[in-house]
Amino acid sequence: MATQCRGTKTKRINRHKLAVIQAYIIIGTLVLIGFIGGLVVGRATAPKKQVTVTETVEVPSYEANSLPVAEEVTYFDVPLSHSLQRYIYEVCADENVPVSLIIAMIDQESKFNPEVVSKTGDYGLMQINTINHEWLAEEYRTADMLDPYQNVFCGIKVIGSYIQNYNDYGLALMAYNMGDYGAKKAWENGIKSTSYSESVLALMQKYEQEVNVNATNADAK
C-alpha cells in the first residue's frame, strides 16, 4: 500500500509539472504572436518616408563657331541680363532667327517677366503653352518653362520652325500665337495678319532701329 501511495503521488506531481509547462508554452506563444502582430501593424500604419527627386537639366549650348562674334552682339536696353541676351544671340544664330524678333516677342508676350503664367497656361518670357511642354521636354530635355534660358531656347526653336515652314515673319507669328491649326483656318478665311503679329513686327522694327543707332554710335567712336 505504501508503495502504491508513493507511486500515485509521484504521478500527480508529474501531471502538475506538465500542466505548468504547457501553460508557459501557451503564454509564450501568445506573447510571441502579439509581438509579431504589433510589428506588422506598426509597419503598415507607419507614415511612409517621402523621397523628393530633383531632375537636373542642362541648358543647351552651342559650338563656338556657330556663335556671333563679339562686335555683332548688341545688348538691348531691356530688363534681361547680358548673360541671357548673349544666350539669345547664340540660339538665334543657330536657328537663323533675328534677335530683334525674339526681343520683340518677349516684350509682347510677357513684358520681360520670366515668372508670369497666364490663365490659359502660358509660361515664362515667351509664354510657352502647356500643350507644348511635353514634346519640348522629350525633344530638348527642358523641364522648367519658368527658367529664362530653357524658355527662350524653346520659344526660339518653335518660332524658328514656323519661319522655316512659312518663310514669312507675320505668318510665323500667327502660327506661334494661334497654333498651326488656328492660323491655317484664319488664312483660309483670308486673314493674313492679326493684332498680335502686327504688334510684334512693330516692336521688332523698334528694336532694329535701336541696333542701328548703337552701331552708328559705335562707328562714330
From TrEMBL:
It comes from the Bacteria. Residues 93-186 form the Transglycosylase SLT domain. The chain crosses the membrane at residues 21-41. Keywords: Membrane, Transmembrane, Transmembrane helix. SUPFAM superfamilies: Lysozyme-like. This is Lytic transglycosylase domain-containing protein. It comes from Dorea ammoniilytica. The lineage of its organism: Bacteria, Bacillati, Bacillota, Clostridia, Lachnospirales.
